[in-house]
Amino acid sequence: MKDAYVEINTSAIGKNIRNILQKYSNYDSFIAVVKGDAYGHGFEIVNTMHKNGIEHFAVSTIDEAAGFRQYNTAASLLCLEPVAIDMLDKAKEYDLTIVIPSLEYLNSLITADPDCSLSVHIQLDCGFNRLGIKDEDELVKAFDIIQNSCLKIEGIYQHYATAGVFDPHFDNQARRFEYMCSKIDISKIPLVHMGSGVALLGHKKPDIANTTRMGLLMYGYNISVQSYGNSIKDRIRSLRDKYYQRKYNLSEVCKDVKLELESAMSMHCRILQIKNVSAGEHIGYNASYTAQSDMKIAVLPVGYANGIGHANNRRKVLINSKLYPVVGEVGMNMICVQIDDTVKESDRVTLLGDKLTLGMFCRGSGMGLAEALVSVGTSNERIYTK
Ligand SMILES: *Cc1c(COP(=O)(O)O)cnc(C)c1O
């Protein structure tokens, strides 16, 4: 058995995409976000996405675009971060669609290469305060310049700062986007997209948008907002939401969205050694764990180098469908788990996948969902299954 590896189930990704496209058929097209080495799944999977109906893809950087093009040269590929002007030749080589985040950028692009005929998306900043054009007059100027240049306008978009769960910020961004777009002839722009997966699930399609971007969903994670429970705290939250909704005239939030998704990534390792520890003995660096009674532990060949992070917030692993706690600190390349007599040295250990959901992995390690996928997926050998 290999020491540690990640398994990527490509048919899960295919099925997820078919389910998403079917449920949200009111969108004309979808942009699959495959930055971060396809959220740690590797660019090997982009053809599965393409075959299942995705025409447009997005990466963050020119280096990622190079990785993507090793596997697929046919699909349209947007680079979400502005390409450095001195790298335009690379953008052409990879047939990239590039973003225009400011008038200044557009002007230097056209000065450097007046005949540049790449496709472009204009990025608007409607309150995120990251990349994008903030001012409507700047937008009007940029749109005019593009119209009178060799560049081909393919899209316009913005990115939400929040999930829009009864917060005015989300709706303000949506209104700001519509307002800015009303200043130009939007009918000349084929793709209008505003949000990512959480906005797709949580909100009805804005009239102005015909396209959506998505990441996590495709890899098998239903990030729909869950309804509140019945506790007093939850009932107070629910009242607060209703109050905000009236006060700020907020849009409805779709909760508990039914969308069948299967996670594609799992991580496994072998057991290096099993040993007995007596009550009162310590385990690991800094003697961070003290055995309360006689116990049995298994030593596993995984650690930071496998992307699992230092934290141990009652992290668990899975052996023969049973959960076991990690004891002591996570190290560079090894961790220990408390086991029972049923575990054998030849057993396979699962660190992510099956009953051990990404949510559990993240709670145990203090990581975010995408962070954990990128971290685990890019730090281990990947094996692809169908
Ligand atoms: C990462 C990213 C997405 C995808 O977000 P998910 O939450 O994974 O759906 C969409 N748009 C932009 C601009 C992004 O950077």
Structure commentary:
The protein has 386 residues and is an alpha/beta fold. The chain is 31% helix and 22% strand. It contains 13 helices and 19 strands. It is globular, with a radius of gyration of 24 Å. The mean pLDDT is 96. The structure holds pyridoxal-5'-phosphate. The site of pyridoxal-5'-phosphate has 12 residues, from α9 and β9.
What ions, cofactors and ligands are bound?
A: pyridoxal-5'-phosphate
Would you tell me the overall average pLDDT?
Answer: 96
For the largest sheet, list the strands in their spatial order: 11-14-17-16-15-18-10-1-19
Tell me the strand percentage band. 15-25%
Rg for CA atoms: 24 Å
Q: What is the first-to-last residue Cα distance?
A: 20 Å
The biggest beta sheet, please? 9 strands, mixed
Class computed from helices, strands and strand pairing: alpha/beta
Low-confidence blocks of residues: none
- The number of helical elements comes to 13
